[in-house]
Amino acid sequence: MPSLRNSERNATARTCARAVLILSFLLLGAPVSRADQSATGTFVVAGRKAPVLTLERLDGGDMTFPERGRWTIVFFWSLFCHVCIEELPMLAEEVAALPRDAVQAVFVSIDTARMKKGLGNFLKKRNLDICVALDRIVASASYEAADAWGVKPTPAVFLVNREGVVTYSCEGPFDPEKLFGPLRTALKASSSCSVASDETVVVETVSLTASAPVPAAGAASSVVQP
Q1: CA distance 20 to 187
Q2: Cβ–Cβ contacts within 10 Å for residue 125, how many?
Q3: Against a cut of 0.90, is the pTM above it?
Q4: pLDDT per position in the chain (226 positions), as tens?
Q5: Contact between residue 218 and residue 40 where contact means Cβ atoms under 8 Å apart
Q6: What one-character-per-residue DSSP string does 166-207 give?
Q7: Are 187 and 71 in contact (CB under 8 A)?
Q8: Lower CB count within 10 Å: N or C terminus of the chain?
Q9: CA distance 32 to 170
Q10: Helix (DSSP H) and strand (DSSP E) numbers for the chain
Q11: Are 198 and 71 in contact (CB under 8 A)?
């Protein structure tokens, strides 16, 4: 019979192997998934009203989003999501070129306030000037913002019009032109005439068609033409 010490060694080896496997998934850059957690919300698709929430800002104070009267970009991300880290610089650059009085951009970190220091150091190191809101855990494995928006894997991005209706949503990697193209068109149209014309943009939702407990990947799209 194996000794107690050998059994302990075998258990330790199995634990280490699982840890290495999980770390390998993260390093390979797949989206971070919350599919194994008890998220109760349904992913907010195009055409639906966006949930309105108030979260703590990384730089202090609280913020409410989406803000009525402005277009809002909501990006859910995590420091442990390689795809998110790759997309952040591009998003920050695109957002910086948009008029702040017309567009609100909120980068919701599911790392929560416990990662404040790490988030601050990351933004400073990458020289990213973005508005980070901190999601919070309100119950066991329940996130206030992510669950309200139905977000399980990150990244996830949403575009909300001035009336608070989602016009584009995507789980996983997304096409920047599908997000920013219609938005630029709407902003240009609204600035050149007095009649609001931004509700004629393409309404689109991109969602995952397959997922694994950790991680999840793969996407498919559907477009509803106005």
Answers
A1: 47
A2: 8
A3: no
A4: 445 455 444 444 444 444 433 343 333 344 555 444 444 589 999 999 999 999 999 999 999 999 999 999 999 999 999 999 999 999 999 999 999 999 999 999 999 999 999 999 999 999 999 999 999 999 877 999 999 999 999 999 999 999 999 999 999 999 999 999 999 999 999 876 544 444 444 455 655 433 322 233 333 333 333 3
A5: no
A6: EEEEEESS--HHHHHHHHHHHHHHHHH-SS--GGGSPEEEEE
A7: yes
A8: N
A9: 14
A10: 5, 11
A11: yes
What's the angle, vertex CA 145, arms to CA 147 and CA 223, rounded to 5? 70
Our CA dihedral for 151, 105, 77, 83, rounded to 10 degrees, sits at 110
Angle (CA) 30-82-51 rounded to 5° is 85
Token pair listed for 158: 């949403």
- Considering the domain delimited by 32-224, tell me its CATH architecture: 3-Layer(aba) Sandwich (3.40)
Q: Give the type of residue at 193.
A: C
Place of tokens 């989206």: 31
Distance, in Å, from the CA atom of 76 to the CA atom of 158, rounded to the nearest integer, reads 9
